Amino acid sequence: MREPTIMKIDYKINHPVSADQFIELLNASTLGQRRPVDDYDCIAGMLANSNLIVSAWHGSQLVGIARSVTDFHYACYLSDLAVSAEHQRSGIGRQLQAVTQQQLGPKCKLILIAAPAANTYYEKLGYSHNPRCWVMDQPCGLEDG
Asked: Between β-strands 52-58 and 61-70, what pairing exists: parallel, antiparallel or unpaired?
């Protein structure tokens, strides 16, 4: 009987990720359906303005990412958690979250908005559901005078 192949995955903190690599990963995961993968400038801006990115690499291939915006003490918004479909169900998503949490202060909350299909995944990891999330797709204009 042949032994299963164990993949060596390297986890890196704030390691450079190009917009092309990020787009490729988003498209290889289910998250590409809900992100502006056709807007290169937006994707590049998402990466450039994140202050905590934990990435998972199989050799030189980006196979997972946890992209966050945080103050490191009170709140960390986990904006994107993506693992390529080929590498899902291997613990990469859990490890990306664990490494993210290791970078945060002891009282810092990890906050995210889950895709409907992922609700049971986050519940199993110990997240609690909070119905008080509000989203504004376009900023409100300020009225003159």
From this structure: antiparallel
